[in-house]
Write a structure and sequence with these properties.
- By secondary structure, the chain is mainly beta.
- It has no helices and eleven strands.
- Strands 2, 4, 5, 6, 9, 10 and 11 form a seven-stranded mixed sheet that branches.
- It starts with a strand and ends with a strand.
């Protein structure tokens, strides 16, 4: 069982930055592929970014490429999402997700691929 706790959300003006963290408890963190998703009011949960267990492979949804960076520190069981150049369309609850990966280079973009979810952290971007 893996427990995930997100932090770092808040209110920021358009053009600003936030850094989200997701702390994981449980077994060997490097065995897990990690993902960030977001859900805005009235919308479905959507994929934002994913990172392989080794941290070498990453993938982003098109709308955040060049603005967001996903990273991880396996010594601290933590995954990060650095968000720059935020705009109001980024407003959502951001959730991290984890799943056991068959290889250190595996990563996943779909909700159904993930077994464990955090409660989320609110990000609000004002115009």
């Amino acid at each position: 069982q893996v427990q995930l706790v997100e932090s770092g959300g808040g209110l920021v003006q358009a053009g600003g930055s936030l850094r989200l963290s997701c702390a994981a408890s449980g077994r060997t963190f490097s065995n897990y592929a990690m993902g960030w998703f977001r859900q805005a009011p009235g919308k479905e949960r959507e994929f934002v970014a994913t990172i392989s267990g080794s941290g070498v492979k990453v993938y982003y949804t098109d709308s955040v490429k060049g603005r967001f960076t996903i990273s991880r520190d396996n010594t601290k069981n933590t995954v990060f999402l650095q968000m720059n150049s935020l705009n109001p369309e980024d407003t959502a609850v951001y959730l991290c997700a984890a799943r056991v990966a068959p290889t250190s280079g595996s990563y996943y973009q779909t909700r159904s691929a993930y077994s464990y979810w955090g409660q989320g952290t609110q990000v609000t971007v004002s115009s």
